[in-house]
Amino acid sequence: xxxxxxxxxxxxxxxxxxxxxxxxxxxxxxxxxxxxxxxxxxxxxxxxxxxxxxxxxxxxxxxxxxxxxxxxxxxxxxxxxxxxxxxxxxxxxxxxxxxxxxxxxxxxxxxxxxxxxxxxxxxxxxxxxxxxxxxxxxxxxxxxxxxxxxxxxxxxxxxxxxxxxxxxxxxxxxxxxxxxxxxxxxxxxxxxxxxxxxxxxxxxxxxxxxxxxxxxxxxxxxxxxxxxxxxxxxxxxxxxxxxxxxxxxxxxxxxxxxxxxxxxxxxxxxxxxxxxxxxxxxxxxxxxxxxxxxxxxxxxxxxxxxxxxxxxxxxxxxxxxxxxxxxxxxxxxxxxxxxxxxxxxxxxxxxxxxxxxxxxxxxxxxxxxxxxxxxxxxxxxxxxxxxxxxxxxxxxxxxxxxxxxxxxxxxxxxxxxxxxxxxxxxxxxxxxxxxxxxxxxxxxxxxxxxxxxxxxxxxxxxxxxxxxxxxxxxxxxxxxxx
Amino acid sequence: xxxxxxxxxxxxxxxxxxxxxxxxxxxxxxxxxxxxxxxxxxxxxxxxxxxxxxxxxxxxxxxxxxxxxxxxxxxxxxxxxxxxxxxxxxxxxxxxxxxxxxxxxxxxxxxxxxxxxxxxxxxxxxxxxxxxxxxxxxxxxxxxxxxxxxxxxxxxxxxxxxxxxxxxxxxxxxxxxxxxxxxxxxxxxxxxxxxxxxxxxxxxxxxxxxxxxxxxxxxxxxxxxxxxxxxxxxxxxxxxxxxxxxxxxxxxxxxxxxxxxxxxxxxxxxxxxxxxxxxxxxxxxxxxxxxxxxxxxxxxxxxxxxxxxxxxxxxxxxxxxxxxxxxxxxxxxxxxxxxxxxxxxxxxxxxxxxxxxxxxxxxxxxxxxxxxxxxxxxxxxxxxxxxxxxxxxxxxxxxxxxxxxxxxxxxxxxxxxxxxxxxxxxxxxxxxxxxxxxxxxxxxxxxxxxxxxxxxxxxxxxxxxxxxxxxxxxxxxxxxxxxxxxxxxxxxxxxxxxxxxxxxxxxxxxxxxxxxxxxxxxxxxxxxxxxxxxxxxxxxxxxxxxxxxxxxxxxxxxxxxxxxxxxxxxxxxxxxxxxxxxxxxxxxxxxxxxxxxxxxxxxxxxxxxxxxxxxxxxxxxxxxxxxxx
Lengths: 482, 629
Description:
The complex is a heterodimer. By secondary structure, chain A is α+β, with helices and mostly antiparallel strands. Chain A folds into 3 domains: 12-160, no CATH class; 163-401, Hypothetical protein af1432 (Orthogonal Bundle); 410-479. Chain A is 52% helix and 12% strand. Chain A starts with 11 loop residues before the first strand and ends with a helix. In chain B, 62% of the residues lie in helices and 4% in strands. Chain B has a 5-stranded antiparallel sheet with strand order 3-2-1-4-5. The chains are: A alpha+beta, B mainly alpha. Chains A and B meet through helix 3, helix 7, helix 8, helix 11 and helix 14 of A and helix 5, strand 5, helix 6, helix 7 and helix 8 of B.
């Protein structure tokens, strides 16, 4: 629990009351689309909502329920919405977003009848129901003064501005510690597996939990570190990168804590089978012949066997074994190993690991090839040339997360500057938050931290990604310099 | 009015008390099953008190050392021993701080207690309280570990060290590059990462330039003309993505994909949500079972296959250890199926599978099963039977052995049923249990022998007719009731003479419950034996009635003899036998009995006359269902 005493940047986790309130609100919104406000089911739900609402409101004057930057909030506290509630909520939230609505704010003394009318009002909104101002006016005309619609723009702006540069730097520093701790744990896993010893899963779980805690609050600083791919023994870092990416996907999918832990664990172990291959083969500088490939393609099987042999059977190890075995089996059943017993498709975690493993392998140019590819090229290849290989929804989700220039990419700006991407920008991928590190004349003595989405930087945006190795630069200089 | 010192002292005292209770609750919760009212009540009381305390005093922030718990720099709890350890419980897993925040709720405390319970009952090799607390998702209780402190104090030096350790070819961070280098970045049309890269415009066609990478490619053939794109193609093929070719669709410009279409739509989000919901059904046991089956198919070399089988054996044991017998049975069944498929082409492989199945039925492995059954009363009989059904006769001895160690009746009963069903052809194996020093095993073996009821089984049972333990003889007699083999009557006859009254009675009950000539002969034999008189009157009565019912006409003479015997001195025993003889005649459906009773009904001896008339009336009731008017 590394961040227990750290100030939260913008996501204080909510309690059970907030979770219940959020869930109850969306249930209300769904019910009112089906039945009348006088229906008993609706009334019961309304009454339940108010029980929780009073508890949450407490001394507050108002309570807001909103969806900002991919997360649900009640007031300023982020709610980890469970899977049972997400389905209905996502529909409603998607409709809101079309209207520019981030959420609603309810006065603490709102009456049940008013809320019922408001829910009915929300239920009949259409994409062409008008803009936010018009809707607010309608609410006022209907006498619903105790409710307000929140604007996406204002809320997201507020959300963003809460992160200060100093806090970003602090988070990046914490991210490094967590990331390299994870690398160290992977090294230990590898050493244990090589010696055929039992592997300390407790340590692995702890580091996965640290990664999750970090990603939940600030995924970008960890993703940035995955940009460092020029290690000699890249396998350790690759496994860590895969864990970071996989967990980021998992967090976005609203997986519960237990499953996130399992996912991170599985990702760290996905390539463990390589330790059982001859190391001169794994590190072979020359071309692989058919026999070499044959051996290399045994690593998923060897990985699964290693996990099943060296780890106590529990849900973590079962997930890890499955992901190790399946992470090269594609959704169209190509890939390897070939299935002989049962043609069942790879499970969710294997699909996630497959995507992020391929991405990191191709972007690094170190796992199977020395030829690094730009992340946007990798993404395009994965989406347009290899689409049948991956789960299309997960691939798109991953793409949504990392964008085309993920944190940790070195990019060229229109302002003739070189910058390191720190946080990608969902709304405008070409205008991420960056650290400008150089220009035509060389490295800057003091790097500039620039949010390219701000109007004052309208003249700056990304042109393309730069391969630092091509110019004899080391990405580590830029990522780790501050 | 209380002084500050007094308030502080009171506060410390309250904190001390709550910590003392904390330890008590942890111990009791760990000790009792969840549904026991005692831990439930203690948990509730403790959680409420703790929440109240936090409400009164604000956040409770405890520092933890190896033996002490400190609050506001004051020691508020000291471990007295390993058994009375609160600080140690947390400290041994690296927790150095535990904080109950101001808005802590009862549910948070419950989660904490649950995590502690799980930790204490977990396997020592793999348990980890910190991971357990994290997974519990405590929201208003925080903790800090030594690792957290290390991470927080991390200043970055370690990172560079780590990077060097991981192997930096250059040995040091490279120079930042010259002005020319930077200038080149802005004017390099051939940067392969550029979107204008020509190789991307034509899909995967090789570029005209050679590889500019300073490092040798893993996939390189040493051919200078081999370019990066080709390596990529080979590499992705190696990753199983082998349909990438020049025919693959052209890649769009990056600028063109940065639109809304590129993002997940609402419908697609629903699909993602569906994936999450489906994944919630993941079962580690089902998944591992299927994976092991698949792995058994994957190897082409015998040694590798042997390793797979060893892994299968390990997983099987793990399934059994945690009481997942359905999956264990499934895996065992599959080993047998595979064995039969491999027998022809790969006899050695089949032999290894046979060995694995035999090992699964060994005493050691069945000991694991026994532990699991005793710990998990909820494992059902059907589940257990399905598992046991996978074993061959070699396992019968060890399975019989289980009978002495199983704690729950339904498990013992299930094993007995199994052995009865499967032991018929291997009676001599199970019969070894009759000699077991443990009474439970001997008794259960006797039960099984009796239930099998074959000639061989009965012969084996005869060895324990005089077993010193009443339970063994009792098991035998109780289970011979259902034995379809009339040969068992010989054993029952002998048990009628047992020293134990209950066994004698049970033997009689068994005999009288039977039908047919052998049963009649057995009863006649008992009646003619002097030891008949040792039996209780109830048993004697039962035998006489059964004798009459089974014997029909053949039984009448003996009963008339008993009825007519002169009893001048009103001997109580003779009076009893006369009465029972008439009762027995009433149960006799033969004409001879009817005639005899008619004759006696006209006797000059009043008592005979009365008994005979009553018996006739009773007989008609029994035969015709009513009295004859």
